[in-house]
Amino acid sequence: MEILWAREDAGLEAATARDVSRALAGDRDLAHTTVMTVLDRLAKKGFLERERDGRAWRYRPVASREGYVTELMLGALNETGDRDAALAHFVRSVSSDEVDVIRQALAGLMGEDPPV
Hints:
- The protein is α+β, with helices and mostly antiparallel strands.
- 60% of the residues lie in helices and 12% in strands.
- The longest helix has 15 residues, at 65-79.
């Protein structure tokens, strides 16, 4: 996913499995077929969209990093038996700068002027 997001951020076209394999070559020793399988599974799960390019598929992320992480956070929140307690614990664990971001986001949802 990181490679596909980085390509998107750089304004590059969707990536083939070969593109992803080459990008991973320096970091990991993965077989090309493994990369193809993972990309296929991510597409089937709805994380990637793909289009045919000759005999190959080109893949691009469906959501941004932020959107993906949001879905992960909401999924984790759904796993708790007490959403209110989990949210309260989360808010107590963030930095003061992050509290300001949360306040601004909430003010925007409520149609209020952001706090100063």
